[in-house]
Each structure stands twice: as structure tokens, then as C-alpha cells.
Write a structure and sequence with these properties.
Elements: H1 11-23, H2 27-33, E1 34-41, E2 47-48, H3 51-64, E3 69-78, E4 81-89, E5 97-106, E6 109-117, H4 120-125
Helix pairs in contact: 1-2
């Protein structure tokens, strides 16, 4: 018999809280919402794990990009996957970087946070319209 996963909280709200911690560079909050087996996958399909390593990556990332924030224009739940469409703000020189993010939630914790290029192929992958 497989593992039983139960989300008491709304997975979309958990995901939005996780992103709020990213936007506010709150490493403690990020850590609290990451599952022990947390994985981050970047746009080039590089896999970053375990949780402790990913926390260190966020810490370095925030030092390099102190104004980084994600803005979502669309948030959907499809099966066990939260899909977010929007853009990243890096700094005044790069204010609009379109992207698609996904989050997998198990037991109210983020087991996977992934970012994709916002392109036709990925919009088709997630059954998103082209708007």
C-alpha cells in the first residue's frame, strides 16, 4: 500500500505562502514549508536537493538578488499540482521575466518547487490557454 498524503490546508494557499516567504526572503518560513525530501528544479531541469542544500541556495540567491519577487497572474490546482503563471522581478534592469511555476504539496508541505520557461510548449504541457 502506498503512502497516504493528506492536505488539511488548501494547497494553493500553502503555495502562495511559500512564495510570500520567497518575496520577503524569509529563510525560516521557507524551511518550515519545505518537506524533508524537498526538491527544487530550475528552468534548465537542474535538480537541487536535499532541503538543507536548497535552503543554502536560497540564502545565496537572496544575497545576489535582494529585490527578487514573483508575481502570479493565474493560480490553478490540477490534481496534486499547483500551477502558477506570472513573472519574476529581479531588479530595475529586469523587471518582467515571464515564467510558469509548479508546486507539489504533501501533508501541507512543499515537496517540489519548479520553474519553467513560459512558452507555447510548457503552456500546452499544463493545458494553459495561450493568453
Amino acid at each position: 500500500m502506498g503512502k497516504l498524503f493528506m492536505n488539511i490546508k488548501d494547497p494553493m494557499l500553502t503555495t502562495l505562502q511559500f512564495n510570500d516567504y520567497i518575496s520577503n526572503q524569509n529563510l525560516e518560513g521557507l524551511s518550515r514549508l519545505m518537506a524533508d525530501e524537498h526538491t527544487f528544479i530550475d528552468r534548465d531541469d537542474n535538480i537541487h536537493q536535499p532541503k538543507e542544500y536548497v535552503i543554502g541556495c536560497w540564502e545565496n540567491f537572496f544575497k545576489m538578488f535582494p529585490n527578487y519577487k514573483n508575481t502570479f497572474k493565474r493560480v490553478e490546482l490540477k490534481d496534486d499540482l499547483v500551477i502558477l503563471v506570472g513573472y519574476a522581478y529581479w531588479n530595475e534592469d529586469n523587471t518582467y521575466d515571464p515564467a510558469i511555476w509548479t508546486a507539489k504539496i504533501e501533508n501541507d508541505l512543499i515537496t517540489e518547487w519548479r520553474i519553467y520557461y513560459d512558452n507555447t510548449e510548457n503552456r500546452k504541457l499544463f493545458l494553459l490557454d495561450q493568453s
